[in-house]
Amino acid sequence: MTDEMKEREKPKSLEESIEAALLDAELFVKYRAPQRAVERLQEAIGHQPRSIALREKLREIAFSHGLKDEAARQCLVLVNLYIGRENFDAAHERLLEAKHIDPRLNIAPGLEAIRRARRPDLQHAHAPQSPPPTSAPRPVTFAGDLATVSIFDAVQVLENSRLTGALAIESPARRGRVLFNDGRIVDAECEEARGTLAFRLLVEVTSGGFDFTRSGNEFPVRIQAPSNTNLILDTLRQMDEEKQGNDE
To answer: Which has the higher per-residue pLDDT, 71 or 129?
Structure first.
């Protein structure tokens, strides 16, 4: 331990203890001891688990020194902390970063948390039991209840499985389809709407059911986005901005 670190061992206020941990971490990195920097920050976070400054510094050091699991974990924790402060843009960035660091991560809970925070008026509710279908059943690959399995969970499964086909969504208020090529969202249909507008309408659905039917042929691309996660987060932001505009 350096003389500078020893000097900061005296009792401190919350702000001072956080600042001391950040400075210690920077010194450890400077002295080429990144693992000790990580351990110092983890220790401090144990006392101040909701400190964004500590977690951001840990995320930064972990990522720059190849500790990707730790970096992704801190990104996901930061998403919830930023949502709690209604800093949705920062939550958006950290969720994208977590997915970029580890594409295998299930970020559906984070997407759902952002949707609930941005649009608290969209509450889950169980839909009335639908009557039995009168037409011949489709060869369904994957199905569920949107009050139990969110649309984000469904998208995550289809993306991870790299499936091509149509995710049909039906609720008392809306019905439509989200089309996938090799796990990527390429189009959506909701009543008369198509493309990104249709997708936004379907993202608002929190009750009813869904089922996915595979297709042997790819669909024309009407929605172009860097990733499904980018598309969803941009859609949630647009929904929030639209609601704020209506409220004003």
So the answer is: 71
